[in-house]
Amino acid sequence: MELKVSTRSHAGHTVMTIVGEIDLYTAPGLQSEFTRLLQESPTTYVVIDMSGVEFCDSTGMNVLLSALKRLKERGGTLELAAPRPAVRKILQVTGLDSVFTVHEAVPGKLLTAEPKG
């Protein structure tokens, strides 16, 4: 399955929307998107809208953890929003639900961000 990634940024906040499956085959593309975002933007607060993610394996979780680490090194943060039940279960089983802040939906203040890509 193809992975689609789009971003919306506004005032140092970015919402990254992911649709599809994050696995061994699609994780490198997601990693590239994070790298591009961090190189091109002064963003310090990123929320990943996971409402369209149907599956995420350990490779995908590692990409998210890597992005979190890179943002923290810049003084920023990365949060997850609206994970589907299967993804939420993976977060709980791995204990990553205590590493990431997980929202039920994308925080309202970020919904006014301008679309990019």
Short précis:
With 117 residues, the protein is an alpha/beta fold. Helices cover 34% and strands 34% of the residues.
Number of helices: 3
* CA(first)-CA(last) distance: 19 Å
Radius of gyration: 13 Å
Low-confidence residue ranges: none
Mean pLDDT comes to 90
What is the general shape?
globular
Strand order of the largest sheet: 5-4-3-2-1-6
- Portion in helices: 25-40%
Number of β-strand runs: 6
**Broad CATH class:** Alpha Beta
Within CATH, the superfamily carries the name: STAS domain
Query: What are the secondary-structure elements, in order, as H or E?
Result: EEHEHEHEE
Give a quick account of the main beta sheet: strands, pairing sense, barrel closure: 6 strands, mixed
Q: Which structural category do the helix and sheet elements fall into?
A: alpha/beta
**Which topology does CATH recognise?**
Transcription Regulator spoIIAA
Number of domains: 1
InterPro entries: Anti-sigma_ant, STAS_dom, STAS_dom_sf
Family: Belongs to the anti-sigma-factor antagonist family.
Organism: Streptosporangium minutum
Domain STAS: 3-113
